[in-house]
Amino acid sequence: MTRSSFEAAARWDRPREENDVIPGEFIYHRPSSVAEALAILASHGDEARPLAGGHSLIPMMKLRMAAPEHLIDLSGVADLKGIRDEGGSVVIGAMTTQHELIASELLAAKLPIIRETSLLIADPQIRYMGTLGGNVANGDPGNDMPALMQCLNATYLAAGNGGEREIAARDFYEAAYFTALAPDELVTAIRIPVPAAGHGFAYEKLKRKVGDYATAAAAVILTRDGSTVTGCSIALTNVGDTPLLASEAAEIVTGSGLDAATVDRAVAAAEAITNPAADGRGPAEYRTKMAGVMVHRALARAFERAGS
Amino acid sequence: MNDMTPTREQREAALEGMGCKRKRVEDIRFTQGKGNYVDDLKLNGMLFGDFVRSPYAHAKVTRIDASKALELPGVVAVLTAEDLKGVNLAWMPTLAGDVQMVLADGKVLYQNQEVAFVIAENRYIADDAIQLVEVDYEELPVLVDPFKAMDADAPVLREDLAGKTEGAHGPRNHHNHIFNWSVGDREETDRAFAEAEVSIKEMISYHRTHPSPLETCQCVASMDKVSGELTVWGTFQAPHVIRTVASLLSTIPEHKIHVIAPDIGGGFGNKVGAYPGYICAIVATIVTGQPVKWVEDRMENLSTTSFARDYHMTTEIAAKKDGTVTSLRVHVLADHGGFDACADPSKWPAGFMNIVTGSYDFPTAHLSVDGVYTNKAPGGVAYRCSFRVTEAAYCIERGMDILAKKLGMDPADLRMKNFIRPEQFPYHSALGWEYDSGDYHTAMQKAMDTIGYRSLREEQKARQEAFKRGETREIMGIGVCFFTEIVGAGPSKNCDILGVAMFDSAEIRVHPTGSVISRMGSKSQGQGHETTWAQIIATEIGIPAADIMVEEGNTDTAPYGLGTYGSRSTPVAGAAIALAARKIRNKAQMIAAHMLEVSEYDLEWDVDGFQVKGNPGLRKSMKEIAWAAYNAPPPNLEPGLEAVSYYDPPNMTYPFGAYFCVMDIDVDTGVAKIRRFYALDDCGTRINPMIIEGQVHGGLTEAFAIAMGQEIRYDEMGNVLGASFMDFFIPTAVETPHWETDHTVTPSPHHPIGAKGVGESPNVGGVPAFSNAVNDAFGFLGSTHIQMPHDAWRIWKAAKELGAHG
Ligand SMILES: Cc1cc2nc3c(=O)[nH]c(=O)nc-3n(C[C@H](O)[C@H](O)[C@H](O)COP(=O)(O)OP(=O)(O)OC[C@H]3O[C@@H](n4cnc5c(N)ncnc54)[C@H](O)[C@@H]3O)c2cc1C
């Protein structure tokens, strides 16, 4: 089935039974190729975990919400790095850091929403370490990249001991910390179709402070012809167990002139698919409403940015 | 005069004395990572202790089995309450006259309570062993809401107090009741309310929060079994008190206990209390004969060692139609958690809450406080404030705003109308304090003029209209606060800690070459004592601050003092320093007279030495006098140049200030943006304006955090929520507003240098300013009071309830 990265309940803000800041014992591996990493994964099964930037996994280990016995550090695998232009799509290696996403001129030109989103993740120190692969494979609904990848209709390239396969971001997330990835598989790269030139985009994220996960966030990509929206994609972060593709909301605005009544209907449709947890960011009702506000603002900004 | 002779101004500047913006000397090591903190200490054979903690908020502990943990290689011992009973330390006294479990004795009263203490060769093994200690719990009904604590059917929390109808502060009238404390004239107050033309009543809550110093609480205890001496290095704001208490509890004679507080990474009240970790580390070193280190992690810190606030204040003000206040009546329900471990002077179960009349001339007032037990962590420390002063300031400053609204008066004008007038000082308040000095009108007027108060009000009006017309989704709030603090505890006639009077001390030793070592009973945790204490001495005895070393925190060398908290160091230790310095100057005068062969009375003090009156060319510098003091003293005078002073202050000091906050609120998200924050402080004589500014910036940042979201929350099961920095709001540089600071100077008439203390004012005055701004923003939509903390979702909720979402 799925790799249960953590128990579904293992969330940051859940009251904890134990009080730790020190991880359990583990063996550290540093393979230099994907094949080598897969072999280690295969021989230790569920006891082994890949380590990317470590900025989700290590905090979990310190809290002993994760206690892998074998840690497979992917930072020595050169094949997992880099950003490639493949014409109609861009392929980003799993071990590309969030900082590298921000620095990439290619992405700035073709997929500017990636820089906008990356700049809203944590802080510079964390972005120097945290990777795109780790962010999408983690399965935490708080991560920002999964919804963005769904919005962009990205595909994750996975390699396992049984071979390679492709999994659409829109099919990847099953529940909090449960994904379609098998325990012996790695995400090697993410392939993103390049949206039409002149597309409008916006990632709107409400958070309590720098370094906080979203209270709610919305990614919007749209194209327009004059005052008419000709195509739209919307996805939501941290207002459900998984990232949420707001397809109905996107359909509502497509073909419209983004008039107030249409936007209200789209916002309502987006709110309807949310099912957020109540936590320190606020009760569920608030977070649902904030998802709506983020959609509203992201639509307006993307529309304004889109070339007609 | 020779060109090379420094002018008087040059000599003065060379001292870097009082009033100088001297750079903090301690920062040289702090900014290079060369500070010396408890956790830097590594001793041979040092063991590490860590706690097994309760997952339940209220439960019986029916079995503790440590056998599996003890089998883990590297585990030395596991202590439980049963072990501590052998040395009579399963319970310990609290500062508030209660007792507190060191380790769970048959039951637990809050989540994360200490259940067993694992001692191992290192931190990692200790943490592994914690998982192996088996504890059986039998859950009990949980009491979280303080308003239900005294219900007839409320669960019994403290079985150890069964049948005790008398507590440390008088009668208890329910099994979860701790004390009632009342001050003021109830009859007069009730009469004033009966006759009042206008009155307001509001339950104003100040939520539970927690100080969060960069460094958590920690210690290393080391027993020398041969000499029978115990050394404890720890994060102690009051090291001498810890030594006395350790001696009383352990029966080790006080001279055989050495308490050392090295550099401390912030305290804010968190490091005043005595915690189970200290006791367990001490017992563990006695048991094992090896040094034992205990270091809290962040979650342990936030969830166990000393919360702050949790005061629920029903506030009533009576007034005439013209706005003149006639009476104040306040009832407080105080949530103390499972044990009353409030860190207040012993006779003050609600601290100095009776400063609640604030800056206003209330002819009569009455305050009554009921403390109750709940299934939450114990504490009740003064989080960067004098005891309960921030609660008092919040109560009265919200109250005045609510009254202003009811009267249709401007809140600044209402305050101006009711201020204690300059000629009324020393002022006797209706609740028993004698305010030393103040000039509130001048401070308030300066603040209002600087911030452009009237035009801000006009702008606000225009924006409210625009909001009503649907042109904007932002509303604007102007928060006004005028606070008066009471700090500098305190006169021994009314302040002691477990019987130890709250004096403080200083010792100054001038070396033959004219440099100085000085030691105090205070203990800096970041306040910059090494810098400012030297400045006081420099001005008093004319030796450059750069030649003066300040040392604190070692009980073997420092004179006995009560430590640093409650803004007491400048008012109390600062006075002791000035007086010790004056003793030295007096002796120096005798020596100078001998050297110059004149009478003492012919000499006058001049910056850095004595000169003959009318003949300034004839002078001796302190440097020359210091040499003579040792090597050529006058006959009949003993050699040497040093002094000790113990200072028991005649009164508290009363710093005050006027703070204004301008805020813009997005009603759709509840996000509040601070547009401006202006803080005018009057802390009397200003020793180092730069340090004052730094203290104000830090305190305002804490106030911003507390008012806008920093909170220790519990769910209905008593699970503590948000006790990590993912949730507990610590603003970063990005969120922190820009601070504008300003001052007036009204010296304290009874303090040797007129200084009043400033470190805590910004926390005390900041919180009401932020909260009043939020409340002020929503006033035009019909709201009277919105409870803190004002994080985005709660502001949004208020907006929604007021119909702002359409
Ligand atoms: C204070 C703080 C604030 C943060 N705020 C945000 C935020 O606002 N938004 C946000 O999105 N993130 C945030 N993060 C998380 C950060 O972006 C992480 O870096 C990211 O979630 C995980 O990336 P990583 O490279 O660090 O992965 P790791 O932590 O190393 O791994 C995460 C998980 O993915 C698995 N994994 C890693 N790589 C692969 C792979 N190639 N194939 C298969 N499985 C893999 C690991 O086994 C692990 O289960 C924050 C982190 C911190 C510490």
From TrEMBL, chain B:
Keywords of the record, alphabetical order, are: Molybdenum, Oxidoreductase
Species, as recorded:
Roseibium aestuarii
> Which top EC class applies here?
oxidoreductase
InterPro entries assigned to the protein according to its UniProt record, in alphabetical order: Ald_Oxase/Xan_DH_a/b, Ald_Oxase/Xan_DH_a/b_sf, Ald_Oxase/xanthine_DH-like, AldOxase/xan_DH_MoCoBD1, AldOxase/xan_DH_MoCoBD2, AldOxase/xan_DH_Mopterin-bd_sf, CO_Mo_DH_lsu
Enzyme Commission number(s): 1.2.5.3
All residue ranges annotated as the Aldehyde oxidase/xanthine dehydrogenase a/b hammerhead domain in the record: 32-141
Q: Where, if anywhere, are coiled coils annotated?
A: none
**PANTHER family for the chain:** ALDEHYDE OXIDASE 1-RELATED, XANTHINE DEHYDROGENASE
Listed GO MF terms? carbon-monoxide oxygenase activity
The answer on whether this UniProt entry bears the keyword Oxidoreductase reads yes
Q: What is this protein called?
A: Aerobic carbon-monoxide dehydrogenase large subunit
Instruction: Give the matching Pfam families.
Output: Ald_Xan_dh_C, MoCoBD_1, MoCoBD_2
| Family matches, as NCBIfam families | CO_dehy_Mo_lg
